[in-house]
Amino acid sequence: MSETRPGRREEIDAILDRKPGTSETRDEADRYTVVGAASRATFADWLTPIEEHFVCHRNPIPEGDAESWTIDLAWSGDGDAVELPLSEIVDDLPTVAVAHTMECAGNGRGQHDPETGSVQWGCEAVGTAVWSGTPVRSVLRAGGLDVGDAASDPTTHEGDRWLTAIGDDSTEEETFARSIPLSKALDDCILAHGMNGEALPAEHGYPVRLVVPGWYGVNSVKWLSELRVTDGMVTEGSLDRPGTHARWQQDDYRIHPEGTTPEHTDTVPTADTWDQLESPAVEHPYTFDETVMSLIGRPTGEEPVTPREGSVTVRGVAWAGDDAVRGVEVSDDEGETWHDAELFGPNYAGAWRLFEYAWEPDSGTHTLASRATDEHGRSQPATIGTPADGLDAVESGEFPWNEGGYAANAYLPNAIEIEVTDDA
Q1: CA distances in angstroms from 278 to 131, 157, 351, 386, 391, listed in the order given
Q2: Cis preceding-peptide flag for 114 (omega within 30 of 0)
Q3: How far is CA 170 from the centre of its chain?
């Protein structure tokens, strides 16, 4: 294992002090600043407090303040960039709020067997916050882009233009850049400067970040410094910047078998991650839209439970990225039998739903699991496949083991062992 990079230890300690509901997650190479929800109880509530929301980034938090921060806007082939002060964006353009379940694409990486490298997340790298900020559509229009020329259908991206976001944590050696379809950016994305009614915390991207509702967290670039509208995704050499700048789009955050190097491409026919897994048109899928997933928040498994009037309330959350959750089932026998749970509470596109189930257990030890199904009828698989299965594992009902450990949504690795005591 390499030595912890300079400044990382101090940064993690400071974040843990500010966020008492989180704990540090194991990072095999000590390259990232990572903390996640410390208790499963986080997943029993719809809104995730800032104090419990996960954090993940590679480079040190850049310095800067909202008054002096600017964002460069550039259009492919249309001359010099336009510089917009963040203060003018906040003061002069509309402010909206969006609910977004942000999940690290590596959530569940630590459940792969054999282990993949990097951050060994269990299920703690997900949370739902209400983000306030300025619609990307308004920002691009203020910079001079005729948004009426953009593709208008956020569900298909054939022939779409792309929006590339660049973070200020970029270095001379490496640019942190991510591209999303322009139609998605115009549909529901914002430049966020607030979180849960408070100013955006430093570790969450202060003073401004891109928020892409329903998509994996890597797409929501923190410490946003530049937006470029282009004809394709970022590829090496396409940004005219020093160092490398396509790694985080084209190499990492791709789903591929062990020992495979993904080919760089400039577009995909769909941004739905599961559709890419099932489609021969995308050989090594990109992690954009979140896959269907659920987690039980209570009981937590941290202590025995005693039924009240014969039952125990099982509560949790379920999400499916851009898609709606159609239903959730609960099992107390490791998936042998299933029982329908009830969806309730807020129902916003891009954010998780709460579910409850009145469980009537006998005394003893039980394994509780939840399984969500999205509006297309796609359900969580039971397990993660093996490296030998490759991406073909999806055809046999398993989530494919992949070298980056991305997008895992199997339900058995997230099951909880519950001890039930006799009713007093």
Answers
A1: 32, 17, 24, 18, 9
A2: yes
A3: 20
At 136-151, the pLDDT tens digits run 999 999 999 877 655 4
Rounded average pLDDT over 260-267: 94
Distance of CA 43 to the CA centre of its chain: 15
* Residue among 266, 273, 106, 131 at smallest CA distance from 195: 131
Tell whether pTM > 0.90: yes
**Domain parsing of the chain, residue ranges:** 293-420
CATH class of 293-420: mainly beta
Token pair recorded at residue 87? 């203060």
91 φ/ψ angles, rounded to the nearest 5 degrees: -80, -35
Look up residue 225 and give its two tokens: 């410094």
φ, ψ of residue 126 to 5 degrees: the values are -155, 145
